[in-house]
Structures are given as structure tokens and as C-alpha cells.
Fold these 2 entries.
Entry 1:
Amino acid sequence: MRSLIDIFELSTDEVDRLIAKAEDIMSHPTAYVDKCRGKKLATLFYEPSTRTRLSFEAAMYELGGNVLGFSEAQSSSAAKGESVSDTARTVSCYADIIAMRHPKEGAPLVASVNASVPVINAGDGGHNHPTQTLTDLLTIKREKGRLSDLTVGVCGDLKFGRTVHSLISALSRYEGIRFVLISPSELRIPGYVRDGVLENKKVPYEETTDLDGSIGKLDVLYMTRVQRERFFNEEDYLRLRDSYILTPAKMESAKEDMIVMHPLPRVNEISHEIDSDKRACYFRQVMYGKFIRMALILMLLEIE
Ligand code: NCD
């Protein structure tokens, strides 16, 4: 039995197979409508979510399975002081697979050690978000046709943005990837990603505060919001939240075939005028998220 806590637990080959499976589901959805008949997914969300929780639930329904769970800690026994490990043991009695989001880094790992069914990390604090990364990889593959030989700009809150940490880890394993890390100096990428991944794997990267000066060389621009809930004080958040706003004027310097991605939710960092630009693919990215989660559920439940 396997869980998915960190994207590194999947080999590159497995990631490629998940992408291929998601593409097959997109082309032949009717072949999958009964694959999870009789199976149940539990979504245990201790933190707000729209896309991740609903795409997991939609994924399980489209596979013919059922869903149970909670969408806020206050409505679960966590409010009475129950530990994540006890909750994981309990839910294992009711469900065949668990997707968990938690504000504390490592909570889904603790759940996976105590559960007797597979646990998927649906975002743990400012740490990791492996299924967003699978979504992002499928998006890049579909929109750019490849996962290698790309200059990828990642812009915004690189310190607390968990999707960024998992994305850099995953893309660093492909050939010819270089990163341009664009953030205010206070929100630079954490050392465990810079040293542990980029330096360690000798992946070319630069750190800059300058979006205007960098946008012209990018194949992919991955925007992120400033993670208000992870700041220690509101003043710092207010000072940093509008550091980068992508506008049509800025897009004029970008390549014709650059794609703009965003894990969403967007707050203020992409002007709504960009939505009609053909390079904006963040709403298609949302759609890919459901298909890759279908592929992942099948893999972890060992259903062909
Ligand atoms: C992201 C998250 O929860 O980390 N959202 C998502 O899952 N698509 C990004 C964010 O909240 O900024």
C-alpha cells in the first residue's frame, strides 16, 4: 500500500505514466466510469480549499466511487482535541483512500503512518502540495508539448507557497530546465529547496526581484499569491501583497507562446484583462487537476 506525501516518492517514470493515464482518461472518459465502483474517498480538509477538495471529489465520482469527509477542522473531532493519528485510524475504517489538507507541515505524513489505507497530501502548511504539482506538470505537457528544455519563471511568494516547492522539486528532474525565481527579497525560496534541490542537482537558476526584466526569456510564467495566512503579522502582508501584478502591458514583453499558470486562488496578482489572452491557461489548469487526480486514485488503489 502506497501513500503520496511528497512528489519525490514518485519516480519520473511514474509521473510520466500518471500523465499518460490522465490523457487517456481525457480521451476515453466512458471507459473509466465504473473503475472505482464500491470504493470511498475521504476528504479531510483542515484548511480552506475550493479546487483541490472539489477536484478530488469530482474525480472519485467520475470513477464511479463515493466520497465522505469534512471541509473544516471545526466540524470534525479535531475541535475536541483529537489527534491526526487517531482521526486517520478512524477514517481508515470507513474509506478506501484519504486526501488530507492540514495547516501543519507533516500532518499528512503522520496520518499516512497511522492509516491503514493510502493517504494523499492535499497541501501541508507552507511545505508541499504534490497533487497540484501533478496538475501543473500535466498542464505544461498539454500546453507546451514537453516537460524538458524550458525556462520557467516562478513569481510571487516563493517562501510560503507550497505549490512552488513541489513544482521545483518535480521539474528539476527533467532535462534542460532552468528557473527564474522572482520574488521580493523577504519571500525568497527556502534554503531546503535552493540547496537541497537546485544546488544539489545543479539545476541552473537565478533569483531576482525583477519581473519586467525577466518575462521576455520565459517559456512558462507561474504566478502565485502572497500567502496571507502564513504571515506572522498583517503589516508585512499588506506591504508585500501587491509586489507583482501581471498586466497586459507586462505581457507585451513576453514570448508569443509563453504560458501563464497559477494554482489559484488569484487575489490581485493577475489582472482580469489577462484572462482573455490566449497565453493564460490557469482555468484549463483547473480542469487538468481533476483528470490527474483520477489517474492518481487509480494508481494508489492499484486499479488497472
Ligand atoms: C494552492 C494551495 O492551497 O496551496 N491552491 C490550490 O491548491 N490550488 C495555492 C494557494 O492557496 O495559494
Note: The mean pLDDT is 97.
Entry 2:
Amino acid sequence: MCGITAHVGSDEAVEDLLTGLENLEYRGYDSAGVAVKNGVGIDVCKRQGEISKLKERIRGEVDGGGNVGIGHTRWSTHGPPTDENAHPHTDCTGDVAVVHNGIIENYEGLKRELERDGHEFDSDTDTEVVPHLVEAYRDEGLSPEAAFRRTVGRLEGSYAVAMVVEGVDGVYATRNGSPLVLGVADDRRYLASDAPAFLKFTDRVVYLEDGDVVALEPGDHRITDLDGNPVERPPETVDWVAEDAEKGGYDHYMLKEIHEQPTALAQTLQGRIGGGQGADGASPPAGNDAVELEEFPPGAFGGVESVQFVACGTSYHAALYATRVLASRGVEASAYRAGEYATSPAPIGDGTLVVAVTQSGETADTLESLRVANEQGARTLAVTNVVGSTAARESDDALFIRAGPEIGVAATKTFSSQVATLTLLGERIVRDLTGLASEGVGDLLDSLAALGGNVQRVVDESRAQAVAETYADRPSYFFIGRDVGYPVALEGALKFKEITYEHAEGFAAGELKHGPLALVTEETPVFAVFTGRHDGKTLSNVEQVQARGAPVIAVASEDHDAALDVADETLTYPEAAPEAAAVLANVQLQLVSYHVAKGLDRAIDKPRNLAKSVTVE
Ligand code: M6R
């Protein structure tokens, strides 16, 4: 976790670093800090808490005219969130300052060695060994760059590290297992854990690779390997724009991103259905059953006999959804929680495709699973939102969900785009295996093509706020569903607990009677997801909870009289094929969570203890 950033070039280092940190705050918000060169030394300012707290103090502590600096926003791993543990960390002299994202696994041994040599440490962090090692190597007579390289050579674990050092008008940085991108503007250079940090200043990006060492100077940069050999990495232009990563008048990023789902889905589907390009921002045309994944021509998945999905959190729910889509079309598919798969991998055969589903492409558990699958010789595919992410680079192939940047810690639009992408992938696999389109695919693709418009209707007409007000302040909330409605029930509960801090659980509807029903009382609102498939059985489960006095909120198609008549409250969506209905039902549940959390005055975009990108195992 954590976000790091660096600026070299203009006299606005402080402003640019703060902008970058605000755009990276989704990666962690336990503390924040900057180190800026002021011409005679290095000013460091760091504070426990969010970046707003840092901003309150920074004017008095940092020279506003500096042109070189580094910044950090922290999600704590080693040591509590205090001022002392906030980054940047410095050496004994204050001439070296370092920010770091990742975990230095051998820091205890290095720290003992440095303490024996007289170095004094101020924090509990693993990171602080880095500036002290650089100091030690400089004392031995090495240049700052050589000392940095020697230090990096001693580190084990995952890291993206950036350093400023007295006497050098620039920044040194490197990465190993943690993301780091370089932004290239005419007279300035930026570094960040994620490109949105500097999109306001430049859209020209270099995705650095593990082992790259980059030296930034005003208007220039050099990339080398650890041994100093030059490495060529031409900049690419990213097509995300700065406004995508701003709140645009909404109270919260989460609400903005819920509202962005029609656009995100149009981007996801553009050119992939019906062989045609949808107009800008519009859904692709309906009525043609071609599926075109530009990256994968027909036959690309011909040898696939089974699919194993690995993912975490919301992405796991999208993966679970994909198993239902594939299994219903006769393809063997399973979804694994990546943290478990990494330690207990499933057997891999000749025709096994392992698909890592990850919005960020940087989730450590998912990457570890991917590496395990790669080691076992599986064919691997990343389904991700981030071009140039580690998952995309470490997989054999990548399929992009094209949802645009998502800043709210709670995943919303990316779930919808993942589900749409995975549905198309499922159809592509079926066609490659059987030579035929799957049964009923015309209706499914028509529903997908209409999904953006239908999501818009749900967002415009939703009664979620009223439902949230009616059922606020209950001890526990249940979410039930079956088939493609089951992942939606799990996702509804995850979103609810994540941003409201209230207890919520998702269940396969049929599983309730095998234990959880014991917890159901008249104080347990039950959200029942109906998708138009196997709904009769879910109706029986609804009756079972109602018999225990629980209020039921049916999330169902607007013409589903049976579900709507029996429920105490309803949240409806336009009629759609079950796979698309699941997405529409999920949008209603996103809105319920949002409004309950808002009523409770929770930190919706930055829920406590969490971060957007979980880069530790
Ligand atoms: O970037 P990823 O999709 O790999 O992230 C996986 C989870 O950490 C993420 O989906 C998390 O569960 C969300 N914050 C939930 O809203």
C-alpha cells in the first residue's frame, strides 16, 4: 500500500507534490509527508492523518520555492500511524530523505547492523534502514547514486523507493514488486505509484520495470539497470484525463463513480459487441451476436479446458460471477480467493487458463497467485483496469476493462466493467471451444448493449435513499442471492460493511437455513437479489426469513410481481437477461450502502483501516 510521488523541475515542487498526494490518498491515509530541497538543505514536513493535516502545517515548515521533492501517503504496516512513523525518513545527518511503498523483509537484520555502527533510528518502520544505509555508503566514499544502488542491492522484499540527497539536484528511485511510473513533461519529471497522481501535469508516462533505477533531473531522466547499464523505455500516452480523477461536483468519489457506470460500461463494451464501434460515450449497437475482443482473435482460447480465476474482494465477486457464466455454458470454471490460492494452489493441467481479476493490477495476494500459476506453467491472463500494471505485465496476456480511474476505496464502476468484460470473455472462450455461439447469446448481448442505459435509469429513479433511511440503525444486515445473484449478494454485503462499518453478511440464498437463519430476527433487514433465474427458490428463502419476522427488501426486475408483492420494500431495475440483471441489482445495493454510510457520516471515500490498492500480503 502507500503512495509515493516525486517532482523535479519547476519551482512548484510543494504544490505539485501535494496535488500528487491528494490523487494518491486512496492508497493510504494514515499519515502524509514531503521532503523538499531548499537550496541549502532538505525541508521535511510529515503528519499523522490525512493530507489536509499536512497542508495545514506545511507552509511554515517547507520552503515553497523548492524545485526537487518527494512525497508519501501511508497505510501502516510497520509501526502505528504516528508523526514519527510517517515518511519521508531521513538519515542521521538529515542529508538523505526517502519515501517507500512496500515491505523490506530483511530490515531487522539491516537495522541491527546499522545500530551497531552507531546509527540512531527515530521510527518503527522498515523504511528507515534505507536512508541510513545510503548514509553509511556515502561515508565510505561512494557517490550518492552509487550509494543508492549499493543500498538497493541489500534490500529484500517489495519496494518502490524514491530518494532526495543533499548535493544532488534530482531524485533517485527504483522499484521491485511495487508500482512506480514516471511522468514526462517538457521541463519537469514526476514519479508516482499511479499515473493519476500527475495526470494534471502530463499524460506521457513510462511504466518502470522491476530493477530499473531512474535518475530524475530538471527536464531529463536516465533509466539504467541495477548495474548501471542504460535501459530504453520510451514514454507512452495514457488516455485517462485529469478530470476523470476529480470529484466533479459530487459529494464523494464513490457517488461520482456510481453515476459514471453508464460511461464506464460504454467504454468497456465499445467495439466489442456486434462488430461495430459505439458512438462516443454511447452503448454499442444491439442485435448482432459477434463478440470481438480486439486483443484476442477468434481461436485464441481454443486450447482452454478449464478456467481458474484468482482475485480478492470485489474482484473476487466479479470472478465468482464469471464462473456462473462459464459453467452455465458448459465450461469448467472455479474462483479462488487469491490469498488462499497463493498458499494452496489448485492443480494446473495442460488446458488450464488462470485469470487474475484485479482492478488495480497491483494487489499483492493476486500477484502472488499469478506468480504461483506462472511457475506451474499455466497460461495466465490479467483482467485489469490499469494498463502497465504489474498484473498486466506479469501475465501472458491482458484484457482491459476500460472503466477509467477509480478513486473511491469502495469499488463500484470497476465491478460493473469487470462483469461486462468477463461475460464477453466467457462467450469468446465458449465460441473458441465449440465453434458455436452459446445458447441465448443474442439476448445476453442485447442486454449488455442496453446495460449502460438501464444503469442510468436505476441511478436516476432509485429509491435507495428512502430504503436506507427506513432501515438505518439495525444491528445486522443480510444479503441473499443465488446463481449470478449470489456474487451480487456477497458484493452488496462487502460494500455495506466497508463504508457503513455496520455488520453485514452475504449468503447463497439456499444456505441460510443451514445455520445463518439462527441469527435472523425482526431486526435483520434481508436484501434479496432476484435476477430472473431460479427466483422461485429464492422466494421460498424469503418466506423463511419473513416467518422469523425479518423485513425483506426485494431487489428485482420492475415486472417481477411475485418478488415485489411479497417484499416489505422494493428496489427495482428494468427487465434484462439474468447476467445483466445482476449488474443492475448491484447498482441498487451500491446506492443503499452509500446512503446508509452518508446518514452515519462515515468517511465514504476513505473508510477506516482500508486502502484502495492492497500491496501487502
Ligand atoms: O485492485 P483489486 O481489484 O485487486 O482490489 C481487490 C480488493 O482489494 C478490492 O476489490 C476491495 O475489496 C474493494 N475495496 C472493495 O470495495
Note: Residues 462-617 form a domain with the Rossmann fold fold (CATH 3.40.50.10490).
